[in-house]
Amino acid sequence: MTSLAELIETFRRGALSHDAFIMQIDRTLALDHANCARLRETLDETQTKDPLPDDIYAELIRHIERFAGTQAGFGDETRVQVASPPVRRAASPNSAAEPAEGTFERAKGIGDTLNGRFVLEECLGVGGMGTVYKALDLRKLEAADRKPYIAIKVLNVQFRGQPSSLIALQREARKAQTLAHRNIVTVYDFDRDGPIVYITMEYLSGNPLSKLLREPGFAGMPYEKALPVIAGMGRALAYAHERGFVHCDFKPANVFLTDAGEVKVIDFGIARALTRPDEESDVTVFDPATLGGITPAYASPEMFEHREPDPRDDVYALGCVTYELLTGRHPFNRVSAIQARGEKRQPERPKDLDRRQWRTLSESLSFDRATRTPSVERFLEGMGVRLHAPPSPPRPSRPSQPVKAPQPVGAPEPSRQAMRRLIPAVWKGASISLAALIAVAALWYGYREWSGPRSGGGQPQPPAVAKTHASPPAPAPLSLAAVTPVLAAQPCSSLSASIDGNALQVRGYVEGHTGVTRLRDALARFAGATAPSIDVQPVGENNCDVVTALAPYWTSTHQAGGVAAGTSIRTKAQNGQLTEGSPLVLDVTTPGYDTYVNVDYYVLDGSVVHLVPSRRAKDNQAPPNYKATIGSMGDWVIGKPFGTEMIVVVLTPAPLFDTMRPDSEPRAGYLAAMNERLKQIGEKYGPARIGVDYAQITTRAGH
Fold first, then answer.
1. In this predicted model, what pLDDT tens digit does every residue of 33-68 receive, in sequence order?
2. Residues with catalytic annotation?
3. What is the pTM for the complete model shown?
4. Domain termination site, one of 355, 382, 409
5. By residue range, what is the domain housing residue 20?
6. Domain for residue 86, yes or no?
7. What is the C-alpha separation between 211 and 208, in angstroms, rounded?
């Protein structure tokens, strides 16, 4: 609407104060109350061409939505450069005829209900494609679910009229459903209510990173405090890149900091599958980038040039967000990469970064892909983050009196300058106290002086002085009651133990990178034990959510004397090695009581395929001590993607679910639903009567 556009332009020129501008806006809205949707379209069109400051834009949205009976939030806006024809409504609710010219459909907002199930209660934010609401799920409320709230992303009115918009939102949901990671928001489903299309996802309590960065006086976060946020953002992007997706719109508004201290990346709205030489790409069918979704301050130069998406586009955006997090300002003063490149801008070095960290950050901000940090993994490594962090070294106990290292007779005192050089070099990679470092360095120096003859001869012999040693901590007595909580505390693991005299045996599954080392260190504390026998299988990060969720039931099943003993699942394939096109055949055994058998295949792409029960194997009741082979008729055949995957059997004394699950669904939502149901079954029948076992398989392409 022209009057609104003129008001905005007048305000830009400084001819109107803030208060006068808002007053004029309210007057315009009051005079044209019926056309708030059109006024919102005008504001969005103006905002795309020449954005207002975020706080002013948010205030205008609130005023418009207040007159329209709704509210809205804001963030770093994705500029979606599309034509926006008016969205018309039919002449009557029961008519499918062409609507009258000039009529507008009211946007869904606070208080409205979608599909008679989801009540929109609060606006959480506005993005380029849609508005996100906190919604009450009436079905969950009826079932007395302790967490009845979800988040719903509703397609914007002005964007909904585009022919490709429905496909865009559907692709967003489908892609996001395959990304099951603790640092990525869980997407549940895609649906529509008449002309309204929306996505349901997990509800997060907290704030977007953009809110923190825009707080008055924010001048950056100390490196040590910012590192967990950088790690969470990077791990989410690295996980997506491993699965062939580029976010393409990474920015502070798409990073959510939960009240529980978690980092969640949201809105893979315009992410596109990377073209792989061995796979077909759907880019020729529908390319979300044709919608022009882009946030100029965080988009790489290649995105402006409409080049094929590349993980290095996300690296550029991650570099911008990291720089802003550390300094409180954008590396190029929020101008686009194209403009910054033309003006030959160079970011200033943040004060808290060492040489390696600054080199990594500055390379991520390169305007050329060829010289940009090649991957998120390399970025994290250079910034001091590891995708798989090693176990923290034990913190030394504080002595009651200062520890003085034994010195040999006549040995020179260690050089103070040498010590000052030594301590900072060691300090960067350790998490122990400065006093302990000094003591260790002194002990090492003294040992070098009196440790006996060395190669070459002629060195002094150790003097006749008593060697003192710090007393190690008292070992814990070996017992199953003491070992069990230690095993339960291991991350990404399902473990059971048995003790025969002084022999401790542990078996199960642990995280594949440092899990065994961490486990051995944890078990070294027990007294009277010989070297523990550890028989474990490594678990990849993609299966950590499965083994962690089911660990208590797996341990109960496999601990000596477990009620559900006898529960097992094995593959017919030798060592679980399967090639493309080969059938998946499984042997299942059940414990000594009637059970319901549930077999699930956790695929590498983040989905879970339900084998039993399913449309091919509906009957899942089993008598006591039952043995069965499933899949021998070629019901399931191995296909893409390939890698290490997991088959899980869950045996319950009552049906796990009242209705049949879909053939395939996102694993995060399924694990949440299954765990809730297992708790209910455990409360009624006892958790020990739930049997769980895993079978890891490795799949690869055929010759």
1. 545 555 666 666 665 556 677 677 777 777 776 665
2. 249
3. 0.47
4. 382
5. 2-69
6. no
7. 6
